[in-house]
Amino acid sequence: MAITDWPEFERPREKLLQKGAQSLSDAELLAIFLRTGVKGKSAVDLGREALVKYGSLTQLFAAAQPDFCKMRGLGSVKYAQLQAVFELARRALQEQLQRSDVLNSPKSVRDYLGLLLKGRQQEVFLVLFLDTQHRVIAFEELFHGTLSQTSVYPREVVKRALAHNAAAVILAHNHPSGVAEPSQADQLLTTALKQALVMVDVSVLDHFVVAGGQILSFAEKGLL
Fold it and tell me: Which residues of the chain have pLDDT under 50?
């Protein structure tokens, strides 16, 4: 049955307008984005099918274009639109961080890092560069590795911090394995980076590990 044949209060768009976006399921939100289904499937059915295939919204956003476009009812146009939505969300969060002290908005930092790193299939190390008021100046993905390790060079992090005239940094990397607990190598790296950055008067405020649905803070764990 087409969504237009549903009772009005059950249609995703009308439901959103009456009750707000938070009242919709992931599949219903995707249905509004997709707009139309295919023969024999409504847009909500198509949204559910995509979620089943990828397992989560995070994995759907991280899907490679060729694989995404194999699904009936999806294609390069929908892929481009989905990536645009994702990038708009990331930029909105970045704007929020640029206007406020990150230490006073820890949830925004976590949400931002989650958007950047959840679902990535290889290990990525990135740095948020902060000004003297702890507002985000810029972020850079500095190193990429395999599923198990990445090579991070302290001198490169120092060089980029100086280039941005940063007063502090927040470090972050992901664990594609899904296990958020930091390894001994992660702790040694954090210590090495702190020692290198303090030489140029740049402080390390935190180091986050993003794994699956978890985001672990070194500062909160007493590891800094």
Answer: 1, 147
Residue pair 172/120 in contact by the 8 Å Cβ criterion: no
- Rg of the chain over all Cα atoms, to the nearest angstrom: 20
Q: For position 165, what pLDDT does the model report?
A: 96
Angle between helices 184-198 and 154-163 (to 10 degrees): 40
pLDDT digits (tens, 9 = 90+) for 42-89: 888 888 888 888 888 877 887 888 888 888 888 888 888 888 888 888
**Nearest-angstrom CA–CA distance, 149 and 39:** 45
Dist. CA 127–CA 115, nearest whole Å: 14
In sequence order, the 6+-apart residues with CB closer than 8 A to the CB of 27 are: 44, 47, 48, 51
d(CA 2, CA 21): 21
Does residue 98 sit in helix, strand or coil?
helix
Helix (H, G, I), strand (E, B) or coil at 78: helix
Instruction: Judge residue 138's burial from the number of C-beta atoms within 10 Å of its C-beta, 0-12 exposed, 13-18 middle, 19 or more buried.
Output: middle
End-to-end alpha-carbon separation of the chain, Å? 56
Tokens of 168: 């502090």
pLDDT, position 195? 94
φ, ψ (nearest 5 deg) of residue 129: -95, 130
pTM (two decimals): 0.72
Q: Which own/partner contact pairs does 28-37 have at CB distance under 8 Å and 24+ positions apart?
A: 31/3, 33/81, 33/82, 33/85, 34/73, 34/74, 34/78, 37/2, 37/3, 37/73
118-133: per-residue pLDDT in tens?
877 788 999 999 999 9
